[in-house]
């Protein structure tokens, strides 16, 4: 299959590398104004969790091929939520066609998202990967699954091809009740964790703050309590939390059970610990916190611990 990946960021490049290794033709759409527009090659250090629970470290070189065609089977988009419209406009202006895989943190509702996508075929996904990318090097980790919208929730004509694409990469697909609601929920969970980590750490040093959080039972307890609060914020958006019991189960256990379990998991699971420390896009993290904070306030949801932590982080970032 022919795959176009928008940009040369962490998520897009990680999956681009896996798609190419699986035998697919992969190219990147990079804006002329980007400082990455002339990149031809990247060194890759990947903690690969597809075949081993703790991950296998591999090193490789990835040849970056730039957009050369007008039609692709899939266009993989992983950008901050506020930039989706700009991506669609760029693709429209250049008459580039293909089914869009939106692997983004999306805070918009379905109607707003449909308007942003401007009539294009698209399917919602959520990556289970993370990392850090420079002009010469990608350091990343990837898990053995990818979250994908159910076929009946989307109208794309090549859903079976998409399933095969991930199967070729030895990546399992997990399909939640409603993909957009699932994304909202996980953005909110991330906001709770980031706000607590930032309050007790240094918001300008997200990796160090994440390490500090994972090593502290007191901070993990605050994170669990904040996650309980933000579940009410998501419910205020009309999400029926009963459809996402598995996602919230660990945070509903008594903290004297959940906190030691989380601390032990972070201590022993290298892959999970790695993904916590590699997400360093501060603007993206702050956007998530602000979005969830504003939503809670607008809906008059009581979440004092989360609001306090979030205010600390947003104030420190100014």
Automatic annotation (TrEMBL):
Pfam families noted in UniProt: ApbA (PF02558)
Domain Ketopantoate reductase N-terminal: 3-103
Classification via InterPro entries: KPR_N, NAD(P)-bd_dom_sf
Protein known as: Ketopantoate reductase
Source species: Streptococcus equinus
């Amino acid at each position: 299959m022919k795959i176009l990946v928008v940009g040369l960021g962490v998520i897009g490049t990680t999956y681009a590398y896996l798609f190419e290794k699986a035998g697919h033709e992969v190219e990147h759409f990079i804006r002329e104004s980007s400082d990455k527009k002339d990149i031809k090659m990247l060194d890759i250090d990947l903690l690969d969790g597809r075949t081993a629970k703790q991950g296998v470290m591999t090193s490789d070189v990835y040849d970056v091929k730039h957009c050369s065609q007008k039609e692709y089977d899939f266009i993989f988009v992983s950008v901050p939520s506020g930039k989706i419209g700009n991506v669609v406009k760029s693709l429209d202006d250049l008459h580039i066609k293909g089914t869009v895989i939106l692997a983004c943190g999306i805070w918009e509702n379905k109607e707003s998202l449909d308007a942003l996508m401007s009539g294009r075929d698209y399917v919602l996904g959520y990556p289970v990967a993370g990392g850090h990318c420079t002009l010469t090097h990608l350091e990343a980790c990837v898990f053995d699954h990818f979250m994908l919208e159910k076929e009946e929730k989307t109208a794309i004509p090549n859903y079976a091809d998409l399933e095969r694409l991930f199967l070729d990469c030895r990546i399992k697909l997990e399909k939640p009740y409603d993909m957009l609601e699932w994304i909202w929920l996980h953005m909110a969970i991330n906001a709770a964790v980031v706000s607590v980590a930032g309050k007790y750490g240094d918001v300008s040093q997200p990796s160090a703050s994440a390490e500090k959080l994972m090593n502290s039972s007191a901070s993990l307890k605050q994170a669990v309590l904040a996650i309980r609060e933000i579940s009410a914020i998501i419910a205020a958006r009309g999400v029926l939390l009963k459809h996402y019991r598995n996602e919230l189960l660990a945070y509903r256990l008594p903290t004297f059970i959940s906190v030691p379990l989380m601390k032990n998991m972070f201590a022993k699971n290298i892959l999970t610990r790695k993904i916590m420390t590699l997400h360093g896009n501060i603007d993206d993290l702050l956007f998530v916190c602000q979005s969830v904070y504003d939503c809670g306030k607008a809906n008059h949801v009581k979440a004092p611990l989360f609001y306090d932590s979030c205010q600390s982080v947003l104030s420190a970032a100014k």
